[in-house]
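Re: beginner question about structure tokens

> Can someone show what the tokenized structure looks like for a real chain? I only ever see the sequence side.

Sure, here's an example I had lying around. Input first:
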Amino acid sequence: MIKLNKVIIISPDIIDHKMAGPGIRYWNIANELSNYHSVVLFTPNNCGLTSSFTIKTINKKSIISECQDASCIILQGTSLWINSYIKKLNIPIVVDLYDPFLLENLELNYYDPNASQLHKSSLTVLLDQLLWGDFFICASEKQKDYWLGMLTAINRLNPYEYAIDKTLKHLITVVPFGLPASTPTSSTAVLKGVYPGINYRDKIILWGGGIWNWLDPLTAINSINILTKERNDIKLFFMGIKHPNPDINHMQMVDDAINLSYSLGLTEKNVYFNEWVNYEDRHNYLLDSDVGLSLHFNHMETRFSFRTRLLDYFWCRLPVITTSGDVMSDIVKKYGLGRVVPAEDPVELSKAIKSLLNEKHKFNFDDAIENLTWEKAVAPLLTYCESPYLSRGKAYRLNIEGLNTNKLYYYLIKSIALIKKGESKFLFQKIKNKLLKL
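And the corresponding structure tokens:
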């Protein structure tokens, strides 16, 4: 098959057997686009996975070389800001805004004395993307409204763009997370009767994915504590507490969850903390569970989030309990895929768990996942990659003043914050990792 164009993808997170949301997203986007285009995927690590497309470690010389005959480049997070030379390559830049990291960082740095400076740094990185992107993708229509507001404020939504298409679909479109088209089947038992402390007849409440500061594992643990007063066969299993990327900051919420579980005497009795699960093995854990759990707090990050772990629950037809307030909880309600509970309410959560475990329910997973495959999710991006273009309206963007774009300042603020948190060892490891990549 003749490939139409050459597409460059830069993943901000590692892609390997163990990976988190961003890595999973770009691995699957690369797979879908490679069916029609020649794809070069850049990763921050030496990727051990095999594929039909080219995988390279992020390196300035290599990126510049590959971009010489490329049709467009897709990136996210700090990738454009760190690799600012990309702006000079005269190649269409696709900015992925699926992860509203500015809102995540407000939660992450909530108690940090340098929160204002850290926010300013995050805003600098974000505005850099909005100013230089030629085409933008995000995860939902709600996110799209948020990003259109920001694009309007810096005059990226202007008469020149409006004259091209009044819907602005040529400027920003929705490319959500997806799920595999294949139906999952278990290849081995991993939890019931296998994992130490979990019996064959136990009921598994699965926390699929990591524990981040903006999520609420504490309510989950407190609800299990309530349920143990009535029965001892309900087990809460956290699928991953140790991020596979060593450059990702340790989350305080991980320690808070572990400490709460220990204080209640639940650890390795009714609550289990696992380090991380290989991406290709995750379905075995999902299929060996009874309920999939996703809990968060009521704040701005929730409103514009896209909880990707729920897609794996849908894929494996695992009944869901999630907190209200985001687009995924709306899908759970619409299709009747489980229960939606109020934030920080362990009593209501324990009732929802009992209901799903004790009563017979019919869940409409087939209807829900029909349009959620990776193939359909990536389709709008595939259309753009067939005929990429530089934005004609970008020339009329505003000049943003008052933000410090100096990289030394950015890294200094980040370093000071880590030192004040007592994470000097982690800082030195990050510096070492950066130097090894030079």
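Each token stands for a local structural state, so reading them left to right follows the chain. Residues 6-178+375-405 form a domain with the Rossmann fold fold (CATH 3.40.50.2000).
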